[in-house]
Amino acid sequence: MIWIDTIVQGVLLGGLYALFAAGLSLVFGIMRLVNLAHGDLIVMGAYLILVVVSVLGLNPFVAALVAAPVMFSIGWVLQKAVLNRTLGDDILPPLLVTFGLSVVIQNSLLEGFSADSQRISMGPLETASVAVGPVTMGLLPLLTFGSAIAVIVGLNQIFYRTAIGRAFRATSDDPVTASLMGIRPDRVFATAMGLALVVATIAALYLGTRSNFDPYVGPARLIYAFEAVIIGGLGSLWGTLAGGIIIGVAQTVGAAINPEWQILAGHVAFLIVLLVRPRGLFPRAVD
Amino acid sequence: MTLLETHGLTAHYGDFQALFGVDIRLDTGETVAIIGANGAGKTTLMRSITGVLRGAADQIRHKGTAIGHLMPDTIMKRGIVMVPEGRKLFPSLTVEENLLIGGQHKGGRDLGDRIDSFLSRFTGAPDPVALAAGHDGTGIWTLDTVYDLFPILKERRHNPGTALSGGQQQMVAIGRALMSNPAVLLCDEISLGLAPVVIRDIYAALPKIKAGGTSVIVVEQDIGQALKVADRVYCMMEGRVTLEGRPDAISRDDIHAAYFGAPA
Predict the structure, then answer these.
(1) Residue to substitute from A180, A236, A284, interface B, most B β-carbons within 10 A
(2) Is there a contact between B243 and B254 (Cβ–Cβ < 8 Å)?
């Protein structure tokens, strides 16, 4: 019975990793941009929610709703003003620029909020749980997992059911021909980055309520996100969820065997998948 | 009335000059054919007109407005739309989505354009809304009328665009361009790599396209086909126009000389 519990907790943890990774996957899928600052942008989102909660005294969920449009705007301007200039045949410039951005964000947060660890309080929700048969599930992890599913369903709806989704896919296929159809690829990319930061805000809500955070936790979260994206297959959102779950389960199972093995087990699972399926579990057909 | 004209148009790829002072003209309601061998500069001319290659503003004029410096999306919103060489369908989109995306950004009224229009007052950049004015993207072409023109596309509408035969893909590419109800349609090598019977079917759509109020420039290597459909023909060689005239007024020898640079 304890094994079932361990695996369920791992799946729920996978939801959190999938949320970290969904924005990364979205941006990579549309513009082949590997955003090394994604983890730091999530941390920035967590600080933004924290500020809204403390200044306006709002519930964290409402605060995230306030933060989301701000994060969208930051993403839009960042892409339009900075990152669009780095895109091209060479993959090195976006890596260098987002790496630099990561350092800038970390130091700005350090300057603004100090190195003290912070936490967004959810009140009684933090410890609430539901029992399903032999397994007890925390309400917050369940909400996290549900949010991950909702985010992925929502992004898929946007991709395959809306005009902007068509523009995303067309621009991803061929920006020059897309511009002949009246599309401005730079604006489409900016909108995609804005959307990725809205997803990052949702990830930030759960990052900030489920554990302590400080200005430096971004890169560690980014590693899990990368592993989830790569296990799932680059650019596939459902694959990203599967990748998150695999890492989550590996970590909880590893921790159940020996608490020291938690982090290691996640990385080992990633390496095994990479050995067996180098292109991930659900690679896109044309890449 | 002159709808579109180039005047002393030059174009470069890095240090390589591809066009040397090209003058062409398209009148309202006309079909103009541009013929020439590989490397004559036909596709470069199309890329210049549509803004993929940008140069001096007044080398290209549309209804008297200089447009040579504009971005491809602004030129498209003025109603100048291209069917690109090689069809260039979007592989991630179905046939129907490929058609829809052609009509989705016409007329220059989207939010991004309005913001850029506002900013242009301060930056001096071209104002996309003002530049797209005069073409609202309305007309006879909708998803239904495109399906009437090419019925096979309706049957295949949920297939990925790239899963179709070459001729059907060409129909999607033409339908995609028509969805914006263009004032000028530029067709770049639409018969390339297709069987003669398929080419005939595709050219059969041309009278209906013209009846919808669209003026057409076709770029062709197939001289016979070009002479059959065009009101006027330009022949290009090595980045220059070497011959211009009505199909019935120019002889085979004229064309041979203009096309190959040597008399027959």
Answers:
(1) A180
(2) yes
- Inter-chain contact A180–B81, Cβ cutoff 8 Å? yes
Query: With b meaning 16 or more CB within 10 Å and e meaning fewer, what string describes B139-177?
Result: bebebeebbebbebbeebbeebbbebeebbbbbbbbbbb
Which residues from A are below 8 Å from B105, CB to CB?
Answer: 167, 181-183
DSSP string of A200-246, one letter each residue: HHHHHHHHHHHS-B-TT-HHHHHHHHHHHHHHH-TT-HHHHHHHHHH
Mean pLDDT on A63-69: 97
Smallest CA–CA separation between A155 and chain B, in Å? Answer: 16
The confidence score (pLDDT) of residue B263 equals: 65
- Closest CA in chain A for residue B182: A181
Q: Return the half-sphere exposure (C-beta side, CA atoms, 13 A cut-off) of residue B5.
A: 13
Contact B90 A169 (CB under 8 A): yes
Average pLDDT of the residues in B64-75: 92
pLDDT at position B76, please?
92
For the stretch B107-130, pLDDT in tens is 656 677 777 778 777 777 777 777
A54/chain B closest Cα distance in angstroms? 34
Size of interface A-B (CB pairs under 8 A): 69
Number of domains in chain B: 1
What pLDDT is stored for residue B107 in this prediction?
60
Window 41-70 of B: residues touching A by CB (8 A cutoff) are 50-52
Do residues B134 and B80 lie in contact, with contact meaning Cβ atoms separated by under 8 Å? no
Angle at A274 between CA A271 and CA A279, to 5 degrees: 160
Please report which helix (H) or strand (E) contains residue A253, including its range.
helix A237-257
Q: For A285, name the nearest residue in chain B, comparing CA atoms only.
A: B92
Question: Which spans in A32-135 are helix H?
Answer: 38-56, 60-81, 92-113
Distance of alpha carbon B257 from alpha carbon B252, whole angstroms = 9
Decide if B93 and A173 are in contact by the 8 Å CB cutoff: yes
ipTM: 0.90
* A176-227 tens-digit pLDDT: 999 999 999 999 999 999 999 999 999 999 999 999 999 999 998 899 999 9
> Do the Cβ atoms of A170 and B92 come within 8 Å?
yes
Range of the domain at B24: 2-260
Chain A residues within 8 angstroms (CB to CB) of chain B: 163, 166-167, 169-170, 172-174, 176-184, 187, 286
CATH of A2-115+134-276, one of 2.60.40, 1.10.3470, 1.10.1040, 1.10.1760: 1.10.3470
Closest residue to A183, CB basis, from B50, B73, B88: B73
Residue A287 pLDDT level (bands cut at 50, 70, 90): very low
Comparison of pLDDT for A119 and B125, the residue scoring more:
A119
Return the CATH number at B191. 3.40.50.300
- What's the whole-model pTM score? 0.91
